[in-house]
């Protein structure tokens, strides 16, 4: 009976994870409550996820990553990346592969990608390379780099912890590295070869903005219904003296590039995104009948855009933002920061109307009208990624050597002195706070509550699967379908099943469901379960076909101007190559030998 109840809890949890009808954190808490209330687990067992070494380690790694970020670790790489600009798209991809891959092996990959976004846009503004050719590859490089060490991704930490709890072997800090390096190299070569051929060339608004904005502004003007311009071609209506530059025409929800827009006849409510000096834009507005500055959202009301002395910036809503699930009108952006909302972009489409009641989602892009103080306040809040030059970000460079030394000591203590990873990571997190590499409030903001609550809620699910015998029942059914003499086939199936689950659920949820089953499966087949666990670990990180499967994919969607289908263009061939690589190469490093 307990098995049936547990199966129902798992089915309900999977449905909620898949549909996102309620926040993921609430689903995770519901799992804990359901396991305790049904008596499947004792209350202390149901709450084990909060004190699990995996949860403690992942939380500590968020703090350490934030310390390295705040002290400006990636700033050191900006000059080298700038020099790589002359190598063309593939040369830049090689440079970003090395940077994102190495950094993500020891830092959480989300802040790595966040830090690289403004660098990419800065490079693209000074070259002929579209940012849409770079952002998806950078996200994939960060995902691949995270698989190279135990601490590179929360999934590896979770699988190690669940394996030990299920009676299986654990992993050392660098046990993932031999195959991880091969996996990363094969994936990176595939991306570098195919990305310039398969990815579209799109230009988001942020990339069109000039690198220096002191003398030039970007604003939006709307063609009124009574304007004499209605029906006239745009190129016949704009000034011919070159003072103003047209960037885009927005018609309904469609964004039309300037090259195509110039030949189109104007229609009522068309919005023109134009660039020029304040005097040039003012002269244009005074001479153009029926053309007005667009309206913006000041918290609960729409007001005319009264001035162009405020610059327009893009801000990407981050996965752990306090803005998630809240309507624009309730954020208080104007009251708190003096910020006005011009538009919201979601899934590559721009929304200018009815945005006051839009509930924000991770990856949404806000087009904001701000002054310098408002932009600085938003940046400090860590709820959005301000898409602009890295020169605007203030870092504590003097403490960078100290932060790096603390991280190195943690790695050495774990690898050489065999200090438990959770203890070493927690000690290192305390040290970066004690030495003021990171403030306490910054440490709390660095914690990804969604990931931590997912761990706390799903770890007891793995314990329950082992305790009730559900894992053993699944193993018996699986063994009956497979040929025990060909365990490599099982490894291949495990990888692809995990990768498919990751695309629609999450990497950690997939790992929790499969790890107890794999440990028991190895015991029943009489083979070392570690190769099978590696297949699950790498398959759980193989989220390349949809933006929703991995945080970094969603973060780059707005700045790159991507649509959902763009990920699959590169993701499908990459997934096939990596699946074959895992099937053929994992047994070379971890033979499927009998116990």
TrEMBL record:
SUPFAM superfamilies per record:
TrkA C-terminal domain-like
Superkingdom assignment: Bacteria
Q: How does it sit in the membrane?
A: Multi-pass membrane protein
Key words, A-Z: Membrane, Repeat, Transmembrane, Transmembrane helix, Transport
Give yes or no: UniProt keyword Signal: no
- Its principal location? membrane
Any one GO molecular function term:
monoatomic cation transmembrane transporter activity
Q: Which GO terms describe its biological process?
A: potassium ion transport
- Indicate the transmembrane segments per the record: 46-67, 87-106, 140-159, 179-199, 402-434, 454-475, 487-506, 532-550, 570-590
Q: Where in the cell is it found?
A: Membrane
Q: Which PROSITE patterns match?
A: NA_SULFATE, RCK_C
Residue stretches making up the RCK C-terminal domain: 206-290, 300-384
Does the entry feature the keyword Metal-binding, yes or no? no
Can you name a GO cellular component term? plasma membrane
Protein name per Swiss-Prot or TrEMBL: SLC13 family permease
